[in-house]
Amino acid sequence: MRIPILVAVLPALLLSACAVGPNYRRPPTPITEAYRGQEPPELTSIADLPWWEVFHDEVLQYLITEALKNNYDLLTAIARVEAARGVLISTRSQMFPQAGYQGDASRGRQFQGPLTTVTVPAPTASNPGRTESATFGGNRTFDLFAGTLNAAWEIDLWGRIRRATESSRADLLASNDFRRGVVLSLVSQVAQTYFQLIELDAELEIAQRSTKTFGETLELFQRQFEGGIGTKLAVARGEAALAQAAAGIPDTERFINSTENAICILLGWPPTAIPRGDALTSQELPPQPPAGLPADLLERRPDVLQAEQVLRSNNAQIGVSIADFFPRIGLTALYGGTSSELEAVVKGSGNVWSIAASVTGPIFQAGKLYGGYKSAVANWEAAKWQYEGVVLNALREVSNALVDAQKLKDVRDERAKAVTALQEASELATIRYTGGLATYFEVLEAQQQLFPAEDQLAQTERDELLAVVQLYAALGGGWSDGEQHVPLDAFPYWP
Description:
The protein is α+β, with helices and mostly antiparallel strands. It has a single domain (19-95, 158-327, 371-474), classed as Outer membrane efflux proteins (OEP) (Up-down Bundle), CATH 1.20.1600.10. The chain has 10 helices and 6 strands. The chain has helices at 2-16, 51-54, 58-70, 72-92, 160-226, 232-267, 297-300, 302-323, 368-434, 440-474; strands spanning 98-111, 116-119, 133-136, 139-155, 328-339, 351-360. Strands 1-4-5-6 form a 4-stranded antiparallel beta sheet, with no helix packed on it. A two-stranded antiparallel sheet has the order 2-3.
């Protein structure tokens, strides 16, 4: 009757037992009420939108979808999530009884002791017969069959297994947050590189247009020179300006090729041409995207979530190290049969069974357990500082992106004014030169100022788009909740 009572009491004892070690609490973080560069605080955030609602260029949507299907870094991160899931299952299994079986069949010859000869007495009148002798001992051949079922269960009285499971669960969540971080980084990298590519397309168009314009100017200088009203110096300066402009075409094409190859790496493609969608000036992104509240970073940004799960895992490891100081209590059971005849293994005559309880614990470990505890505490402290540092870096990135998005708009407006003025100046200089009212120097100067200004304007328009992408990434955008998955088949295959 004692065994059933023990079996009934143990579950209640385990449920009421407390796991040793500290319970996890999120440490205080340097979160402010509003981001620097954000006035006043906003409740909504661009990060609440999934990426397919932020980027409206259909080609860009297709490229991001391809990257999420084929990128090798993301596939590696997904595999690591599954590996962490397996570790959690393995660790958690220690909470339950472990059962197994064993079967043995053997045949052998074994020494049984010294030889002994027994002689039967000679026949007598009262006992007729003949003399015989028998030998006992020596080697003997024998068979042995055995089949057993066994079970073992470690009673987690101090919570060692529960803390280890808690740590493994946090590791799984950290690996999943790392995967989400790879997704966010991948989406951002594809978008940024795509915007850089279409900006290079704009620079190539400017280089081609400037080469054509300098060619027309050179023809004008040559006609003036052949007509006797120009100078050889003007022709030479026109040839130099044309050559410098023409050199920009292959140079820009070189950057376009390397940028396309960079996108191919992100997409898991071999080097190939990348399709284009909307032009640089036609991209639709929020000009002043809302940032939301800084506290949202703690629940949304993948690297912050990952750092917190690492901290949670290390916190649980402290409990594991403390539980190692306490004895481990276990139950074992065995049932089966053993016999020299196979059929007797399953019969009552061959049955064997045992039930046992064990207690094992440390007495002297020469500082081994204490060292493990100190190491676990130090790892927790390191993870704590790392977590707070990740939060600070997130606040910095959001603030930088906010200010960039605000200031680049002003920069673009001023550079657009400069381009408009230089276009007018170039046209007037050409008219004045043709009418004999200006020198070639005025024409070349106006053109040489115009085309770099157009390049700068295109680069600023690109930087505006990049600032929005960087803000989206800094806020941890891409997901409307922690477990939403990207609909990889949301967009048709791009031919």
